[in-house]
Design a protein that fits this description.
Shape of chain B: globular
Number of helices of chain A: 12
Helix content of chain B: over 70%
Number of strands of chain A: 7
Order of helices and strands of chain A: HHHHHEEEHHEEEEHHHHH
Oligomer: heterotrimer
Largest sheet of chain B: none
Structural class of chain B: mainly alpha
Strand order of the largest sheet of chain A: 1-2-7
Largest sheet of chain A: 3 strands, antiparallel
Distance between the termini of chain B: 45 Å
Structural class of chain A: mainly alpha
Radius of gyration of chain A: 29 Å
Distance between the termini of chain A: 26 Å
Strand content of chain B: under 5%
Shape of chain A: globular
Largest interface: A-B, 54 and 54 residues
Chains: A mainly alpha (404), B mainly alpha (430), C alpha/beta (255)
Radius of gyration of chain B: 29 Å
Strand content of chain A: 5-15%
Number of strands of chain B: 0
Chain lengths: 404, 430, 255
Amino acid sequence: MTIMTDPQQESFRPSMLLNDTRYRSYTFQFIALMVLIGIIAYLGYNLVLNLRAAGLNISYEFLGEPAGYDINQTLVEYTSRSSHLTAAIVGILNTLLVAFLACATATIFGVIAGVLRLSNNWLIRKLMSGYVEAFRNVPVLIWIIIIFTIMTAVLPAPSAFRGDDPDASMILGSVAFTNRGVYVPMPIWGEGSMVVVVTFILSVIGVFAYRRYAKKLLYATGRLLPTGWPSLAILFVPSILMFFVMGQPISLDFPELGGFNFRGGLQIGAPLIALWFALSIYTGAFIAENVRAGILAVSKGQTEAAASLGLRPRRIMNLVILPQALRVIIPPLISQYLNITKNSSLAIAVGYADITATLGGITLNQTGRAIECVLLLMLFYLLISLGISAVMNVYNNAVRLKER
Amino acid sequence: MSDTHAESVAYVRDTMLPESPPPAAETGVTKWMKKNLFATIPNSVLTLAAILVIYFLLAATLPWILNGIWNATSIRECREILDGATGGCFAVLSDRWNQLLFGFKYPSTEYWRPALAFLLLFVAAAPVMFFKYLPRQMLLFTGVYPFLAFWLIWGGSIVPPLLLLLGFVAAYVAFKALEKRGFGVAVLGGLGVLVVAIILAGSIGKIEVLRLEQVQSRDMGGFLLNMILGTVCVSLSIPIGIALALGRQSDMPIIKWICVVFIEFIRGVPLITLLFVANVVLAYFLPPGTTFDLIVRVIIMITAFASAYIAEVIRGGLAALPRGQYEAADSLGLDYAQAMRLIILPQALKISIPGIVNVAVGLFKDTTLVSVISMFDLVGMIRGPILASTDWNGVYWELFGFAALLFFVVCYGVSQYSQWLERELNTDHR
Amino acid sequence: MAETAQMQVSDEIAIRIENMNKWYGTFHVLRDIDLAVHRGERIVIAGPSGSGKSTLIRCINALEEHQKGRIEVDGTVLSSDIKNIDKIRSEVGMVFQHFNLFPHLTILENCTLAPIWVRKTPKRQAEETAMHFLEKVKIPEQADKYPGQLSGGQQQRVAIARSLCMKPRIMLFDEPTSALDPEMIKEVLDTMVSLAEEGMTMLCVTHEMGFARQVANRVIFMDQGQIVEQNEPEEFFNNPKSDRTKLFLSQILGH
């Protein structure tokens, strides 16, 4: 702590280890380090003894061996003969998939509910706080199981869609909710579809360019262009034109009933839907609170000051309130994303093949490599959360209010 | 306005105006509805949509609840009674009530013991929760409660918990006696006395006094298990969390980094992986031959989990204190332990209470995760023994609805308490 | 006034600072400070903001560490030995700009805390002492209230009483009136004046030049981490020697 070189040069006495601010902190740190090393050595010693007693060793060779189990929903090619490593990669991709989907929808739910909780409509306000309280105060595991139960036990079997007067029917003739999952139309990317996609991406860039141009024009000449309908036009018109110019290259493959099951289309399994929906609606309730708190955190004085300058309510929102509210909202939002990723590990409860269910579940049970599997599993989640923390730090540094 | 006033700038009011009521249109139910429900056209649309949503929710659930069957022995009997009509089969709750609350292995003659422990929990928690309104003497019971609850729930002779209690009292007395000679000495002295008491409790604990039938940890189940895990882990994690937070704020780099690595590691992984550790890994790190109950291993891991989060909350509280508080304590000559104990922590903890309660609620909800490692807590009981039985296979809504309701009542209650406390503390001392 | 200024200054040295230097990182905050304070002396330290005057008095009770030089307080040399630091801190009272009362303790508890825990005074005796000093700062009736319920001026007087309860031989004041509303400044200054009249050794960083004229027997002017000028108040104000002092005085008194 203190570095006083000059004051007095007295000789070293052992009591100074405790009483002198120069040595005191070293003493405590040394003790802490020794205790830590002692604990680690003790645990390590036990580990060695136990492994020797059980005739085991630490080895990651099992990752190369065939997994020998099937996974029903995979993003990459996988068969039961693939290795445990491939199974783990399938799991990682599935974790990322459900986390990404849930983050997107949770944000939508949360923002809508959070804004509506501040509505001046009494009934809407009460309804939204009902939603928030109901979902925040019940374990997410129960929500996942409830929604999974709806998906598997309540929805009709595909066979119910058969016959002239079926018990169930497809929504708009294209989406079927069944107890084997949800069937939706799958886009078929024909020749030339890339051109349409590229056009659309360029349109998105174009919208930003247009808005930038409008702002520049406002700053330069004081003329304010409309931004609403031109943006929409730029976004869709070129893509639609290109779609027909290229001869309608993108088509949809509709799910069709054939035999006892649906054919074609895209099948989204019940576990994924249950996990996705439960995570989004549960986390949405938390995000709603963050959004509400963020908007409330911008003081009323800011609105009044902006209004007294003659700004219209919509511009007050866009130019004064939102930029400040986002500063408050985004950090907790990012940690909610982290929570979603961590909570997606509950997939194991409904049989969705995420990393916890593959590596930490079936692979662990089949190979008996508990230490290795759990270690890898933790490492994966640690990497994800370190990554998200890094993003958060970058953001926090970027938006930090310039203050003295 | 009279002419005299209009002519000159100076003005003196000679009569005060009486208070008058607002115009009629500004009050009443219609005014309220116009303002709060139908202010604008989009607002009215929203209102109608909300009414529709509420109608559908009620239409779906009310008949099901009101028409529910409470007396039946199986789902088939339920369906026969209902005869095609809509209605819930709540008979499963009455039939399996004890299993839902206590698990399926807790001896049925002893249900009164956990039930009594649960009731006493309120008595023990009350003086802490409403510290301003209840006499401080009640805190004595709070101190005794953990030992009493242990004895009630696990059973066995009363001697070991009693000796432990006496050990804690003796340790406290020793601490107080040595306190004037320095905090470190006092802590060491207290710990020494405590260790002696623990050894004593282990050696002469066999004496059978007031013996209750012993129940093994692995026989705990149902909501009782959630309550045990929740209360034990939260109470253990608060002191550990304080220590971690202080360590993380420390200016000694090694101590700081030990705490940072621990906290960030725990916060970076899902609880379920820690439960896997408790289930399959932890045993490798214990001396060969030792067997810990799964419940004890789970308590260790959940406590570690909760303390990392609580440490972060408390760190926020410490950071919120102005630097002047540390300086004032220093300038009066208080040492580190005194400054922390008398000045810094009381204030930091007070700021952190809402955050701690949030962590506690979250943790209580997360205790359901133990069902994944095949422990039979409330969710585990429902998914395992009850839904798997031939009698009640298919009664999803009633069971999960009940579980959701039970958690909702506890968590909502606790969070309402936390908000009340926040208001209470805000108006404090102003 | 002249009479007040001359009283009770002894030859005994209370604080001796020799060749003291301090850096914040590479920034040289205090440069070659030499200062001897006699027992019973009342010193006012003035200077523009950032001149190091607060840092100087915070070094005296080791709230800030100095890197070079020697500080001796009441015969105890300030070293890195925590026993020395604790001894000096309990001999030297300090009053802060922002009071720094403990908001979770009552006024009485604020005043008895350090005597009980540091001086090991029995609680009853500590409370009697506290009431004595609260009477002296003229707010005994507030003893059971919390700091948040008091006005700024009252809080600062409590802060003074809190320091006095440790029976310090030296008092340090770090801009005690800067955070106060104008109408409250006087009540705090009156307290300080009466303290001065009792012969307390005081070092005050303050901009209250009226106070300096009335009670100080030395005024020190600091700039850029150095002592630029020191003199008796009459001389200092009427006949400043250095240009920097003249400029400072014209800015602070000119309006």
